[in-house]
UniProtKB/TrEMBL annotation:
Residues 93-104 have a biased composition (Low complexity). Involved in protein export. Participates in an early event of protein translocation. It comes from Winogradskyella haliclonae. Belongs to the SecG family. It comes from the Bacteria. The gene is secG. It holds the Pfam family SecG. This is Protein-export membrane protein SecG.
Length: 112
């Protein structure tokens, strides 16, 4: 298993977790904390802070996803090498030199 494959698996897992965390949040501010009945007061041992946890986890997962994507770019095979175009490469094995036709010393008119 290559490093790139490991990064790819981690990226998929983090992206899935990020989708789950975003889907749990309510766009109007209620979210998971409103389902426990904690509107403006702190109930059930800190349900009011559930929105803060979801916000922080969203930012953390998004930052982690970006970092994993940037790090995976380093591990791609050939990323550190020269990225010149092969179309512009003048390799001797692909180009053959042009040779002039062979000349003979024989006379074509036979007048010698």
């Amino acid at each position: 298993m290559t490093k790139f494959t490991i990064f790819l698996i981690l990226i998929v897992v983090v992206a899935f977790l990020l989708v789950v965390v975003i889907m749990v949040q309510n766009p109007k501010g209620g979210g998971l904390s409103s389902s426990f009945g904690g509107g403006g007061t702190q109930q059930l041992g800190g349900v009011k802070k559930t929105g803060d946890f979801l916000d922080k986890s969203t930012w953390f997962l998004a930052t982690l996803l970006i970092a994993l994507i940037l790090l995976s770019n380093i591990t791609i095979d050939g990323a550190g090498g020269v990225s010149d175009s092969k179309a512009l490469d003048t390799d001797e094995t692909t180009t053959q030199p042009v040779t002039p036709p062979a000349t003979t010393n024989e006379s074509t008119d036979g007048a010698e």
